[in-house]
Amino acid sequence: MLNFLKKYFIFFFLGGLIIILVLLKIFYGNENTKNTTNITPTITPIITKNITPTGIVGNESIDTEKNGPTVDALPYQGKKMQITRYLKPGVLEVVIKKEEDKAEAEIEIREWMEKYPTFKDQTYVFKISNN
Questions:
Q1: Which of 130, 118, 126, 128 is nearest to 54 (CA)?
Q2: Helix and strand tally (H, E) in the chain?
Q3: Secondary structure E strands in 11-80
Q4: How far apart are alpha carbons 126 and 103 in whole angstroms?
Q5: CA gap 126, 131 in Å, rounded
Q6: Is residue 108 predicted with pLDDT exceeding 80?
Q7: CB of 90 closer than 8 Å to CB of 59
Q8: What is the pTM (predicted TM-score) of this model?
């Protein structure tokens, strides 16, 4: 008899594990398998903020923590100039028609920067339009 138990020990051990697993499933298994309810995800908007205006071109919005609401500031059309886009991070392109308009354009740029403080630390480059 002892020889028989040694020879088939692995089968008895595995059988005991199967019995333990079946009992665990019966007592601790999922009881709510038939009454499943469908979970419908709710749509929640994700609010993102673009802290710096680097790389913004066209009518894309700029949102900063210190200025509050979103501002559509570019492109800006003034009397003697037009602020069109960013040439590179931190450098705005300002288009003027004549070299003589440069002084008046600088005054307009300063007024625009006071209106939109986000751009106060930005520099600008003048470009004379061919039109």
A1: 118
A2: 3, 4
A3: 76-77
A4: 11
A5: 15
A6: yes
A7: no
A8: 0.42
Cα 62-65-71 angle, rounded to 5 deg: 25
Report the candidate in 62, 64, 58, 103 with the shortest Cα–Cα distance to residue 83: 58
CA atoms of 16 and 58, how far apart (whole Å) = 72
| 62 in Cβ contact with 118 (< 8 Å) | yes
Residue 1 has what pLDDT?
Answer: 76
In sign, the C-alpha dihedral spanning 65, 69, 74, 80 is: negative
CB contact set of 116 (below 8 Å; sequence gap of 6+): 67, 71, 73
Which two tokens mark 32?
């709510």
Mean pLDDT, rounded, for 106-119: 83
